[in-house]
Design brief:
single chain, mainly alpha
């Protein structure tokens, strides 16, 4: 069953990668893959639990072996004890109830957090864009040299993703890009560089990427540890590929006749950007950016998931736009871009792709495939640098969230007694080498493939970038940056620090 699931995942992944030759949207492939994998899993989940009720889970060796067979064994035992206290229920019914009532619900909840965050952020960005708010920024970018503009865009993306996060930054910068670059092929080159820059910038900040957030919340890394240790490797991961990509661009940008909202002028009918004042346009930009910046602050104060913060910001903007348009009674409704209208402009195919691929990966996690992979890495690659480097490469194929979650479950922060007995465990202390390098590799490694990160997936959806095109143009470039940053980090830990006495 596990072999079949892996084979089908690889097949589904191939269909996603080859969506253009197959002429089948990647969202359809992802949704079918999700449904098929969960169907197979629920029919065969009982095979993973043949003797759970008779196992002596008090025995540490037995428990460890059982966990490798079925990662949620303790959760399953507690569920059965609570729901089926009478014990007069067949084993299959217990398994089906656990899968449908616990595992699917939990993973769907995790995925929904990402989806609602994405919907909220995309709606805010769309609201700013449709009213011409981004023109306030693009009008100030007067650089016409394609290469210089590339560096400006990528540096802004790099540092912005550390303040916001790589997903939101990728959305904002892609929308800005549409106002600056009008040739689609060249815009794809800039978009590919935005993906790399956003992922690199998110790796050295505790709120820049979902994996660093996971490690930070768990207490495995700290802000004071991430910034000084990872900023140079992350910068190299951005600078090297951008330098190489700059040779794809030559000359100066050509202008285009645009309307106030940055779109091509398609007639004399009123558009939302035509009916708002300059001050209102500026206020929408300021409030929208403030709403996005508010999310990490909200999370750090309340410890609530980021999607709640972004939905609060969206609601506040909704109230503002309703009040703003209520004053414009002489303006036809067709020219008013209320939030309800902006929601219709959201690329929901990308949302469904996220749903399908993340829920498909969840079956690999529930079945123990990802945990087995993590265990194999630990046994086969005892060097922590090699383990993290390989995990980074794998994160471009499999979602980095379950990979990092698997690593977090493999190791605990050692106690003083454990450190005294085995000094090598210092790599797994808070801000230890393993966790620091894992934050870098899992965050930056997703740039190797366009569907290897949330930023890549959303840019792929917004710009309809071909998977194969990105693979040919950017995978080697992204790997060069990834390897450069990784090499610097290893030298930093093994050579530079000892030389300086740290």
């Amino acid at each position: 069953m596990l072999v079949l699931m892996v084979a089908l995942f690889v097949l589904g992944y191939a269909c996603i990668a080859l969506e253009h030759p197959l002429k089948v949207d990647k969202s359809a492939s992802a949704l079918i893959l999700c449904a098929v994998l969960w169907t197979i899993y629920i029919f065969h989940a009982e095979e993973l639990l043949p003797t759970l009720e008779t196992l002596n889970l008090e025995d540490a060796n037995v428990l460890e072996k059982a966990k490798s067979m079925f990662p949620s064994i303790m959760e399953f035992k507690e569920f059965v004890a609570e729901k089926f206290a009478d014990g007069n229920v067949e084993s299959k019914e217990k398994v089906v109830a656990f899968v449908t009532e616990v595992q699917i619900v939990e993973h769907l909840g995790d995925v929904a957090q990402t989806l609602f965050y994405l919907i909220g952020a995309m709606t805010i960005v769309e609201l700013i864009d449709v009213h011409g708010g981004f023109t306030i920024i693009t009008d100030k970018i007067t650089e016409r040299s394609k290469r210089k503009l590339l560096w400006i865009v990528c540096l802004i993306t790099f540092f912005m993703s550390a303040i916001l996060d790589n997903l939101t930054t990728a959305i904002v910068m892609t929308m800005l890009l549409r106002k600056l670059v009008f040739d689609q092929h060249e815009r794809w080159i800039y978009a590919g560089c935005i993906i790399i820059s956003a992922n690199a910038g998110g790796a050295f900040s505790p709120i820049g990427d979902v994996t660093t957030i996971m490690l930070w919340v768990k207490g495995l890394v700290t802000t004071g540890g991430l910034l000084p240790n990872l900023i140079v490797p992350s910068l190299l991961a951005m600078v090297v590929p951008i330098y190489l990509a700059s040779f794809m661009l030559k000359g100066k940008l050509e202008g285009a006749a645009t309307s106030a909202d940055g779109s091509q002028n398609q007639g004399a009918s009123l558009r939302p950007a035509d009916v708002v004042t300059e001050a209102e346009r500026r206020h929408l930009l300021e409030y929208g950016v403030a709403a996005l910046l508010f999310v990490p602050i909200f999370k750090s104060i309340t410890h609530l998931p980021p999607f709640i913060g972004v939905l609060f910001g969206l609601g506040a903007l909704w109230v503002y736009t309703e009040i703003m348009y209520h004053r414009k009674k002489d303006v036809p409704d067709s020219a008013k871009a209320r939030i309800t209208r902006c929601l219709g402009r959201i690329d929901f195919a990308t949302i469904l792709f996220f749903l399908g691929i993340l829920m498909a990966v969840a079956t690999l996690q529930c079945s123990g495939i990802l945990q087995s992979l993590a265990g194999w890495l630990q046994a086969s690659l005892p060097n922590v640098y090699i383990i993290d480097f390989v995990i980074g490469v794998l994160s471009s194929v499999v979602d980095n969230v379950p990979l990092v979650a698997g690593c977090m479950g493999m190791y605990d922060i050692p106690t003083a007694a454990q450190l005294a007995a085995d000094p090598s465990l210092s790599d797994f202390c808070r801000d230890g080498v393993f966790w620091m390098f894992l934050a870098y590799c899992a965050g930056v490694g997703g740039s190797l493939l366009i569907i290897g990160s949330a930023a890549g997936v959303v840019v792929m959806g917004l710009e309809h970038i071909n998977f194969v095109w990105y693979f040919k143009k950017f995978t080697l470039l992204a790997f060069a940056g990834y390897a450069s940053g990784a090499l610097f980090y290893v030298l930093q830990e093994l050579v530079i620090r000892p030389m300086l006495g740290f």
